[in-house]
């Protein structure tokens, strides 16, 4: 059973971080929007924002790779959990300042950061933490069991990727500002780190 859990959690976390990486690097505009959102959160000095964005992007890309290789799968879960904790701290600070900043976690939704993103990250941190414990499994699983566990994990990961859309179905959200020229919001919030625009 622990072997199946290990496979499922690696697929879940791997899908989430693959989507996060792809959402940020799929185009120059996506990357610029991510960097702008990081600047608008004002959790790192402005001059360090490009470097921090690069480190975040590389670390997110490293997670699925580490999870893929058995000797480093535990490290992959640890890195994922650390990144999620750092993201959660940044979101909490942003919310405490009552800033309206777009979530560029997966590069596309543009929903304003909110408490639901803390909930999502908390669930993912839990999954990664359980994954650390499950990573000690032997890996001796029949092919059918591998397939079932992998599909279950991947579907779970996709549910987290579509978390904003799913929660929008059940919770009324404030209207998202419309995007203007070059991603600058029409009448949106302009913080010290520059405007951040949902699409």
UniProtKB/TrEMBL annotation:
Region (Disordered): 177-199
Chief place of localization: membrane
Skewed-composition ranges (Gly residues): 190-199
Cell compartments where the protein resides: Membrane
Presence of keyword Membrane: yes
Membrane topology annotation: Multi-pass membrane protein
UniProt protein name: Membrane protein YphA (DoxX/SURF4 family)
Natural source organism: Micromonospora echinospora (Micromonospora purpurea)
């Amino acid at each position: 059973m622990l072997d199946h859990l290990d496979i499922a959690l690696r697929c879940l976390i791997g899908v989430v971080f693959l989507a996060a990486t792809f959402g940020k690097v799929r185009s120059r505009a996506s990357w610029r929007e991510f960097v702008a959102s990081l600047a608008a959160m004002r959790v790192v000095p402005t001059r360090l924002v490009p470097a921090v964005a690069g480190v975040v992007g590389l670390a997110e890309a490293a997670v699925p790779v580490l999870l893929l290789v058995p000797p480093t799968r535990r490290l992959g879960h640890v890195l994922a959990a650390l990144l999620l904790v750092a993201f959660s701290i940044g979101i909490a600070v942003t919310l405490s300042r009552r800033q309206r900043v777009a979530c560029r976690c997966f590069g596309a939704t543009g929903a304003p950061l909110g408490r639901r993103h803390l909930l999502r990250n908390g669930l993912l941190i839990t999954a990664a933490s359980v994954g650390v414990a499950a990573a000690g499994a032997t890996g001796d699983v029949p092919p059918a069991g591998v397939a079932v566990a992998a599909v279950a994990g991947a579907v779970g990961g996709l549910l987290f990727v579509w978390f904003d859309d799913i929660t929008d179905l059940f919770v009324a959200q404030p209207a998202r500002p419309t995007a203007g020229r070059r991603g600058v919001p029409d009448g949106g919030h302009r913080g010290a780190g520059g405007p951040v625009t949902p699409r």
